[in-house]
């Protein structure tokens, strides 16, 4: 596409924003990232993350790190309450398990530290208020979160990476909304060193799924936040999926934080009402013993409502505004494929900007990938919740063994 350096504004400085900022910097363009949250608020929602093949491809091509950033696994194990394995599901390809913070810190350090490509700007506490197209350039109006002072940037291209509740998308595609899936996820991380020897033996180097009365739990083993994979320095990540009716009293209570504010999607770390957490921990006592131990040793849990959608379009304003990552399509998290989607879109744009493809093809590929991945993730969710294997997964998953 363009051969000269152009001005690119990226709205949202989380994983999708950083991945896109990096590829455009490497293409020789001037990149300016505007992120609404403060650095500490960003970290407060940090969680475990499966880094898919497209994420690793970009890390290998652009970052070329030799530091470990993930553990690996090639099996999902389903256990019953006695700890007996009732199904072992090969993942097909090896899955890489890491954390949001590890990836974020690696990507951001590269964006700001790589001296072989044009310098990039990354600003936190800058909220984009408006994105306007005059048929030539796109004007991005944003304000400082603390002072409220507004500023304007003229861009040749805007990348909307502002997440599932994207205000940029809401302006251009007002009918596309995330839809509640009927369940929430409770999440936490526990340092390996604080877990008993007995539970570590069960949980280490495994991805374990345990079906509960109204949902299921999953746990896995990842490097420490500093990337250490030394013995005793990993951490265990846990997620507990549970059905919860959207307008119920329990839903309202769950999403009302410690200050009385009702949260739309996530009650972040440090904001959960202690009464809510005490109840959750008490119900955790009925789960498998090692998982119950993780719950009891979690000091900063958080909870999210699960929603999904796939946008029918990713290319807006004659190709001057592109929707990427969760701003484009939000998956239910069972497959752990969201960051992979963002990386795949970023990689596809390299071809477009090198003149090896066009935006119409890129948009078509984005919609096809999102539609297919969303359906597979929903099917995996159905299996994990119920034990029934949907047709879509019948070659990948054999029926569970009956519990002895
Ligand atoms: C339970 C659970 C498990 C998950 N597990 C995985 C997994 O294993 N693997 C995986 O790949 N993904 C997983 N995810 C999803 C993953 O966390 C992200 O959704 C994914 O990385 C895509 O991020 P994003 O950058 O598109 O959006 P986000 O991370 O939501 O980032 C959007 C950013 O835009 C900023 N922003 C919003 N509005 C504005 C504005 N107006 N101006 C400026 N900035 C703005 C926000 O502050 C935010 O930082 C999981 C999610 C959940 C809930």
Keywords:
404 residues, alpha+beta, FAD/NAD(P)-binding domain, D-Amino Acid Oxidase, Chain A, domain 2, 2 domains, 6-stranded mixed beta sheet, 11 helices, 19 strands, globular, binds flavin-adenine dinucleotide
Short description:
This protein is α+β, with helices and mostly antiparallel strands. It folds into two domains: 7-65 and 101-177 and 308-391, 3-Layer(bba) Sandwich (FAD/NAD(P)-binding domain); 71-93 and 179-306, D-Amino Acid Oxidase, Chain A, domain 2 (2-Layer Sandwich), CATH 3.30.9.60. It contains eleven helices and 19 strands.
Give an overview in words.
- With 404 residues, this protein is an alpha+beta fold.
- The chain folds into two domains: 7-65 and 101-177 and 308-391, FAD/NAD(P)-binding domain (3-Layer(bba) Sandwich), CATH 3.50.50; 71-93 and 179-306, D-Amino Acid Oxidase, Chain A, domain 2, CATH 3.30.9.
- Helices cover 31% and strands 29% of the residues.
- The strands form three sheets. Strands 3, 4, 5, 11, 12, 13, 14, 15, 16 and 19 form a ten-stranded mixed β-sheet that branches. A six-stranded mixed β-sheet has the order 6-2-1-10-18-17.
- The longest helix has 28 residues, at 359-386.
- The relative contact order is 0.17.
- Flavin-adenine dinucleotide binds next to α1, β3, β7, β11 and α10.
- Pfam families: FAD_binding-like (PF22607).
- Residues 180-308 form the 2,6-dihydroxypyridine 3-monooxygenase substrate binding domain.
- It comes from Mollisia scopiformis (Conifer needle endophyte fungus).
- This is FAD/NAD(P)-binding domain-containing protein.
- Keywords: Membrane, Transmembrane, Transmembrane helix.
